[in-house]
Design a protein that fits this description.
Chain lengths: 366, 262, 181
């Protein structure tokens, strides 16, 4: 039987993680994500899981990677300043192909910025924030329902692709309470264990190696150094490095269609909104109030890898309008893929775009 | 079984310089571990960055070679998520006390059930000989070309103050004592910290008037003062020279620990 | 039909809890949709406390309250900051023991804090008195729904007191009736 709840977004995120079988959470208090940690701190020990409050976000990220190598589904949650600290070990997770989930309830930045106000300013940081080339997966929830569902989905993607997965929420979605319908069961797609006799970093046809869980007799060496398929450091052979880094990128980018999660609304429209996270709600309101099919909407749930194919579903498009709570981070990504004008509609300060603001953007004659 | 069975033979020879003390410390550690009847499949070595931190790569068990200074934070995740695993950390003075200083004191405070072997060569060896938080006052390095002006950390005192259950210090000269201390550390529930003072002929010795490897080993030996003797000297009001350091078991206690196998 | 409700008072009165309880009543027991938001941060600790709630029969798209049509005001400062500009078409339930001004819209004078203290013996339940009055004035949720949501949300051992407080609010609103400016 499905169950209705009236939950805060951060609560739904924590519950989604628990439903997905999260067994380990390490974190550090930071507004506006703290409720995720608080909720998990109360619930996880009762399910034989581990909650630990670390000394900082660097350590939190390190601890979930360590826990993940024991086979646990592991997660942390944070916001801007903590996210910046996590970048070092996010790169380590990417390099060592460690499944883990990082929730970022975004607030206004840079620096300490606006702790209690919403933003989407970390969308590029989650993609490129650690040094070197790599790829990750990032999802963006627009409802409390999606805080639950996309958190749970993040664990499956992390295990399937052996990659850090980011739930890029924002203060609006994280803090608001709304109606949520809980599914009966969350499907868990388990991590593929390394087969005996196969090298620990030898990939399958999807470019993903089996996972050599600690304690299972694999005798695996895991290092952030460039390594060969044995896992052994090999730092001066250009081919080994190029091969490894290309695979880390390709295993995600080649799967972009499979990972993509979006809705296409009114595909014949000439003016098309593209949106993700809280601004989705304003776009939905505008479309609902107009009650016509003349405005298109691409609603993204997967942000990275970017679903460029989705843009091509709008055959008659003359311009894309991109409301974001930042200075146009994803608008710039869209520009890379299309030959029509991309109108960035940035909103800074913490408030959501008002429906009338987007209405006004539609009638501007360009 | 001997300690040699713990080596990942297809990774040898190692990268350590001729005369480096790290090999001695790894041998002492593995000799102690070999007496524990531990299952290799349930033992994990973890390290950060630096010469010391290459050690897990030469050991046949599961091993995690992490980011600079963060080994203890990674180890906290491994040990709490699966307390059945025996977790041993190799680290160095720069890794542990500089960039990893915060993780060090908090791992001691949590008294998490892991054993940490710190190879203290008083220098950043891997990057070519820069001063570290344990470089003695007046000693030379590439970043202290006029002699270090800063006071060094006493890592053992730090570990004791922060709450570790077991703390000992020996040197690469005191191999039997070191092996025994590591074994006691492995046996003691909670956070065990064993500091092994060691020579770095390439980057410390040659800048600090130790012409031969053995000169530095000899200096470690002659400047090491047994805790019992130190206590006696204090009792008798004798002066302890500034350049001496204390060796021996410095604390062994039973504070509540985290991540202990049940 | 979308209704936007603004709650204001001072810290400690349970302003945010009031919005959460009413939202919960709508969602869990009246099968409606609701979105609750509030002001976070140090500003929320002193001065005027504020929370907002949207209740609708259909899923709620834009989640922020911009044109509230229902007000529950429990302090003079809250009135000045969040209630003074209420449009004429709105309905306001105000705690007449604490709010001295009166709005330009239809309003209900409910001496909630005074009643909570004197009749019920605990001023902490003044917000529940106000909720009882609010649903009587607006019919935004049914009484059984509100009662269940209150019982879900209050500490164990205080159920009877809170139910009594709600009923007191219903009674007060029915007795006083609405006033117009």
């Amino acid at each position: 039987m499905t169950k209705i709840e009236f939950w805060q977004g951060n609560t739904a995120c924590a519950e989604g993680a628990l439903a997905a079988g999260c067994q380990f959470f390490a974190g550090y208090p930071i507004t506006p994500s703290t409720e995720v940690a608080e909720h998990i701190a109360a619930k996880l020990p009762k399910r034989n899981g581990v909650f630990v409050q670390m000394e900082d976000e660097i350590a939190s990220m390190a601890a979930i990677i360590g826990a993940s190598w024991t086979g646990a589904r592991a997660m942390t949650s944070t916001s801007g300043p903590g996210f910046s600290l996590m970048m070092e070990n996010i790169g380590f997770a990417a390099m060592t192909e460690t499944p883990c989930v990082i929730v970022n309830v975004q607030r206004g930045g840079p620096s300490t910025g606006q702790p209690t106000m919403a933003a989407q300013g970390d969308m590029m940081q989650c993609r490129f924030g650690s040094h070197g080339d790599y790829s990750i997966i990032a999802l963006a929830p627009a409802t409390v329902q999606e805080m639950y569902e996309l958190t749970a989905k993040s664990f499956n993607l992390a295990d399937q692709y052996r990659v850090p997965v980011f739930l890029m929420a924002d203060e609006i979605v994280g803090h608001m309470r709304e109606r949520i319908t809980l599914p009966d069961k969350i499907e868990q797609v388990p991590r593929r264990e390394l087969e005996k006799g196969v090298l620990p970093f030898h990939p399958n046809e999807n470019l993903i190696p089996g996972f050599a869980t600690f304690g299972k007799g694999h005798g695996v060496h895991v290092t952030g150094l460039t390594h060969d398929e044995r896992g052994y450091p090999c730092t001066t052979n250009p081919n080994v490095h190029a091969h490894l880094v290309k695979r880390l990128v390709d295993k995600i980018e080649n799967a972009r269609t499979a990972i993509a999660d979006y809705d296409v609304i009114n595909p014949d429209a000439e003016k098309v909104f593209v949106s993700y996270g809280a601004p989705v709600r304003t776009v939905q309101q505008v479309l609902h109030d107009r009650n016509t099919e003349d405005i298109g909407f691409l609603r993204l749930r997967t942000i990275w890898p970017f679903a460029e194919d989705a843009l091509k579903k709008f055959k008659n498009v003359r311009e894309f309008l991109v409301p974001e709570l930042n200075m146009g981070q994803i608008a710039r990504e869209i520009e890379r893929h299309v030959n029509v004008p991309v109108i960035s509609l940035p909103k800074l300060g913490g408030d959501l775009h008002l429906p009338e603001e987007l209405e006004a953007a539609l009638v501007v004659n360009r | 079984m001997t300690y040699e069975d713990w080596f990942r033979k297809d990774r040898l020879p190692h990268i350590y310089c001729a005369g480096c003390g790290n090999g001695t410390i790894i041998n002492c550690t593995l000799a102690a571990i070999d007496q524990m009847n531990w299952n290799k499949d349930e033992t994990v070595f973890i390290s950060g960055i630096g010469c010391s931190s290459r050690a897990p790569g030469y050991i046949v068990t599961d091993s995690l070679h992490t980011t600079h200074g963060r080994a203890l934070a990674f180890a906290t995740g491994v040990k709490l998520a699966n307390p059945k695993l025996n977790v041993v950390i190799f680290t160095g003075d720069g890794d542990l006390a500089a960039i990893g200083g915060n993780h060090f004191i908090h791992a001691c405070r949590r008294n998490i059930d892991i054993t940490v072997i710190c190879m203290n060569n008083q220098i950043y060896g891997m990057t070519g000989g820069q001063g570290s938080p344990t470089t003695p006052k007046g000693c030379f390095s590439t970043t202290t070309p006029y002699g270090s002006a800063e006071s060094p950390f006493d890592l053992c005192e730090l570990a004791i103050a922060a709450g570790a259950n077991y703390v000992a210090r020996w040197t690469s000269y005191h191999v039997k004592e070191l092996e025994k201390a590591v074994k006691v550390g492995l046996e003691t529930p909670g956070f065990s910290f064993i500091e092994a003072m060691t020579q770095c002929p390439t980057n410390f010795g040659r800048r600090n008037k130790f012409k031969e490897v053995l000169d530095q080993v000899e200096a470690l030996k002659t400047h090491a003062l047994l805790k019992a003797k130190r206590d006696r000297m204090i009792e008798q009001g004798e002066n302890i020279p500034d350049d001496f350091f204390i060796i021996g078991e410095l604390i062994r206690r039973n504070r509540p620990a985290m991540g202990v196998k049940t | 039909m979308r209704h936007e409700i603004r709650f204001s008072g001072f810290g400690g009165q349970g302003i945010i809890l009031s919005a959460v309880i009413l939202g919960r009543a709508a969602v869990m027991y009246d099968n409606k949709f609701a979105v609750q938001t509030q002001v976070y941060g140090p500003e929320a600790r002193g001065g005027a406390s504020m929370s907002a709630l949207i209740i609708d029969d259909d899923p709620i798209l834009f989640p922020k309250v911009t044109n509230p049509d229902i007000f529950m005001i429990m302090s003079q400062e809250g009135f000045e900051k969040y209630g003074a500009n209420a449009p004429e078409s709105a309905v306001m339930v105000l705690d007449s023991s604490l709010v001295h001004s009166r709005p330009k819209c239809t309003y209900y004078e409910i001496p909630a804090t005074q009643e909570a203290k004197q009749t019920l013996g605990r001023d902490i339940v003044a917000n529940i008195v106000m909720l009882g009055a609010l649903i009587t004035a607006t019919k935004i949720v049914g009484e059984p729904a509100l009662e269940k949501a209150i019982l879900d949300s209050v500490p164990k051992g205080t159920e009877a007191l809170n139910t009594k407080a709600m009923k007191k609010g219903i009674e007060l609103a029915a007795q006083s009736g609405s006033k117009n400016p």
